[in-house]
Amino acid sequence: MTEDDEQTPGLDYRSEPLAALLDVFALWSSGDFMNSLARRVGYDLDPTSIVAITVLARDGAIRPSDLAERLHVGASAVSKIAARLGAETLVEKTADPDDARATLLRLTEHGRDVVASLIDTGDAMMADLLSDWSADERARFTSLLERFRDDASAFAQSLQPPARSASDSTHPDPEPDPDPELKEDKK
Description:
Radius of gyration: 25 Å
Helix content: 55-70%
CATH topology of the domain at 48-145: Arc Repressor Mutant, subunit A
Strand content: 5-15%
Number of helices: 9
Strand order of the largest sheet: 1-2
Structural class: mainly alpha
Order of helices and strands: HHHHHEEHHHH
CATH architecture of the domain at 48-145: Orthogonal Bundle
Largest sheet: 2 strands, antiparallel
Shape: globular
Distance between the termini: 77 Å
Protein backbone atom coordinates (compact mmCIF):
# COMPACT_ATOMS: atom_id res chain seq x y z
CA MET A 1 0.00 0.00 0.00
CA THR A 2 1.46 3.33 -1.01
CA GLU A 3 1.05 6.62 0.77
CA ASP A 4 -1.31 7.78 -1.99
CA ASP A 5 -3.59 4.79 -1.29
CA GLU A 6 -4.13 5.75 2.37
CA GLN A 7 -7.41 7.35 3.25
CA THR A 8 -7.45 11.01 4.07
CA PRO A 9 -8.68 11.55 7.64
CA GLY A 10 -12.30 12.62 7.87
CA LEU A 11 -15.66 11.40 6.72
CA ASP A 12 -16.48 11.17 3.04
CA TYR A 13 -20.12 12.24 2.83
CA ARG A 14 -21.64 12.27 -0.64
CA SER A 15 -24.10 14.91 0.57
CA GLU A 16 -22.37 18.29 0.75
CA PRO A 17 -25.19 19.82 2.85
CA LEU A 18 -24.88 16.99 5.38
CA ALA A 19 -21.10 17.43 5.58
CA ALA A 20 -21.46 21.19 6.07
CA LEU A 21 -24.13 20.77 8.75
CA LEU A 22 -22.07 18.21 10.63
CA ASP A 23 -19.08 20.56 10.54
CA VAL A 24 -21.20 23.33 12.07
CA PHE A 25 -22.69 20.95 14.67
CA ALA A 26 -19.22 19.71 15.65
CA LEU A 27 -17.93 23.26 16.01
CA TRP A 28 -20.93 24.67 17.88
CA SER A 29 -21.26 21.69 20.23
CA SER A 30 -17.59 21.66 21.16
CA GLY A 31 -16.81 22.50 24.76
CA ASP A 32 -14.34 25.23 23.83
CA PHE A 33 -16.86 26.99 21.61
CA MET A 34 -19.65 26.84 24.19
CA ASN A 35 -17.33 27.97 27.01
CA SER A 36 -16.07 30.87 24.90
CA LEU A 37 -19.59 32.12 24.21
CA ALA A 38 -20.51 31.87 27.91
CA ARG A 39 -17.33 33.69 28.94
CA ARG A 40 -18.14 36.49 26.50
CA VAL A 41 -21.03 37.43 28.77
CA GLY A 42 -19.17 36.81 32.01
CA TYR A 43 -20.19 33.24 32.89
CA ASP A 44 -17.82 30.34 33.40
CA LEU A 45 -20.11 27.39 32.68
CA ASP A 46 -19.16 23.95 31.44
CA PRO A 47 -20.93 22.74 28.28
CA THR A 48 -23.21 20.30 30.12
CA SER A 49 -24.41 23.09 32.41
CA ILE A 50 -25.10 25.31 29.41
CA VAL A 51 -27.15 22.57 27.78
CA ALA A 52 -28.95 21.85 31.08
CA ILE A 53 -30.07 25.45 31.60
CA THR A 54 -31.03 25.69 27.94
CA VAL A 55 -33.23 22.58 28.32
CA LEU A 56 -34.83 24.04 31.46
CA ALA A 57 -35.43 27.36 29.70
CA ARG A 58 -37.00 25.65 26.70
CA ASP A 59 -39.05 23.00 28.54
CA GLY A 60 -39.71 24.57 31.94
CA ALA A 61 -39.49 22.67 35.22
CA ILE A 62 -38.76 18.96 34.74
CA ARG A 63 -37.85 15.97 36.88
CA PRO A 64 -34.15 15.23 37.31
CA SER A 65 -34.67 11.87 35.54
CA ASP A 66 -36.08 13.70 32.50
CA LEU A 67 -33.13 16.10 32.49
CA ALA A 68 -30.75 13.13 32.72
CA GLU A 69 -32.45 11.57 29.70
CA ARG A 70 -32.24 14.81 27.72
CA LEU A 71 -28.55 15.22 28.59
CA HIS A 72 -27.79 11.52 27.99
CA VAL A 73 -26.26 11.16 31.45
CA GLY A 74 -27.02 9.05 34.50
CA ALA A 75 -28.88 10.04 37.65
CA SER A 76 -25.70 10.64 39.64
CA ALA A 77 -24.33 12.96 36.94
CA VAL A 78 -27.53 15.01 36.83
CA SER A 79 -27.46 15.20 40.63
CA LYS A 80 -23.97 16.72 40.45
CA ILE A 81 -25.02 19.08 37.65
CA ALA A 82 -28.07 20.20 39.65
CA ALA A 83 -25.93 20.74 42.75
CA ARG A 84 -23.40 22.79 40.76
CA LEU A 85 -26.12 24.88 39.12
CA GLY A 86 -27.86 25.26 42.48
CA ALA A 87 -24.63 26.56 44.06
CA GLU A 88 -24.46 29.13 41.24
CA THR A 89 -28.12 30.06 42.00
CA LEU A 90 -29.11 29.15 38.43
CA VAL A 91 -31.38 26.22 39.27
CA GLU A 92 -33.58 25.29 42.20
CA LYS A 93 -35.50 22.22 43.26
CA THR A 94 -39.22 22.46 43.79
CA ALA A 95 -41.95 19.99 44.68
CA ASP A 96 -43.71 18.27 41.81
CA PRO A 97 -47.36 19.34 42.03
CA ASP A 98 -48.41 16.03 40.43
CA ASP A 99 -46.42 13.79 42.79
CA ALA A 100 -45.53 14.92 46.32
CA ARG A 101 -42.70 12.36 46.43
CA ALA A 102 -40.93 13.83 43.39
CA THR A 103 -39.00 17.02 42.78
CA LEU A 104 -38.62 19.23 39.76
CA LEU A 105 -35.67 21.30 38.63
CA ARG A 106 -36.36 24.78 37.38
CA LEU A 107 -34.44 27.91 36.54
CA THR A 108 -34.20 30.65 39.14
CA GLU A 109 -34.63 34.28 38.12
CA HIS A 110 -30.83 34.49 37.93
CA GLY A 111 -30.82 31.37 35.74
CA ARG A 112 -33.34 32.95 33.38
CA ASP A 113 -31.13 36.07 33.21
CA VAL A 114 -28.10 33.93 32.32
CA VAL A 115 -30.06 32.14 29.59
CA ALA A 116 -31.25 35.52 28.24
CA SER A 117 -27.60 36.65 28.09
CA LEU A 118 -26.63 33.48 26.24
CA ILE A 119 -29.49 34.02 23.78
CA ASP A 120 -28.31 37.60 23.21
CA THR A 121 -24.79 36.27 22.59
CA GLY A 122 -26.12 33.75 20.07
CA ASP A 123 -28.12 36.46 18.33
CA ALA A 124 -25.04 38.69 18.16
CA MET A 125 -22.98 35.79 16.80
CA MET A 126 -25.52 35.18 14.03
CA ALA A 127 -25.61 38.89 13.20
CA ASP A 128 -21.79 38.82 12.89
CA LEU A 129 -21.83 35.68 10.75
CA LEU A 130 -24.43 37.09 8.38
CA SER A 131 -23.24 40.71 8.38
CA ASP A 132 -21.82 40.46 4.85
CA TRP A 133 -24.96 38.82 3.49
CA SER A 134 -27.61 40.87 1.70
CA ALA A 135 -31.07 41.19 3.21
CA ASP A 136 -32.36 38.88 0.44
CA GLU A 137 -29.70 36.24 1.21
CA ARG A 138 -30.50 36.36 4.94
CA ALA A 139 -34.25 36.05 4.27
CA ARG A 140 -33.73 33.15 1.85
CA PHE A 141 -31.35 31.38 4.25
CA THR A 142 -33.84 31.79 7.11
CA SER A 143 -36.71 30.50 4.99
CA LEU A 144 -34.76 27.46 3.78
CA LEU A 145 -33.37 26.72 7.25
CA GLU A 146 -36.86 26.84 8.79
CA ARG A 147 -38.14 24.52 6.07
CA PHE A 148 -35.20 22.19 6.66
CA ARG A 149 -35.84 22.23 10.43
CA ASP A 150 -39.49 21.32 9.88
CA ASP A 151 -38.64 18.53 7.44
CA ALA A 152 -35.91 17.18 9.75
CA SER A 153 -38.35 17.20 12.67
CA ALA A 154 -40.97 15.35 10.64
CA PHE A 155 -38.35 12.79 9.55
CA ALA A 156 -37.19 12.29 13.15
CA GLN A 157 -40.81 11.79 14.19
CA SER A 158 -41.26 9.16 11.47
CA LEU A 159 -38.39 7.16 12.99
CA GLN A 160 -40.21 6.83 16.32
CA PRO A 161 -42.22 3.68 16.91
CA PRO A 162 -45.96 4.28 16.96
CA ALA A 163 -47.32 5.10 20.39
CA ARG A 164 -49.27 2.29 21.96
CA SER A 165 -52.53 3.07 23.65
CA ALA A 166 -53.31 1.80 27.13
CA SER A 167 -55.76 -0.69 25.64
CA ASP A 168 -53.00 -2.13 23.43
CA SER A 169 -50.95 -3.24 26.41
CA THR A 170 -53.80 -4.64 28.50
CA HIS A 171 -55.79 -6.34 25.73
CA PRO A 172 -53.56 -7.88 23.10
CA ASP A 173 -54.99 -8.35 19.65
CA PRO A 174 -56.86 -11.67 19.42
CA GLU A 175 -55.11 -14.41 17.50
CA PRO A 176 -56.33 -14.49 13.89
CA ASP A 177 -58.57 -17.39 13.02
CA PRO A 178 -56.38 -19.80 11.02
CA ASP A 179 -59.20 -20.91 8.74
CA PRO A 180 -62.44 -18.94 8.89
CA GLU A 181 -64.06 -21.28 6.32
CA LEU A 182 -63.96 -24.18 8.82
CA LYS A 183 -66.32 -22.29 11.09
CA GLU A 184 -68.71 -21.84 8.20
CA ASP A 185 -68.60 -25.57 7.45
CA LYS A 186 -69.43 -26.50 11.07
CA LYS A 187 -72.61 -24.44 11.13
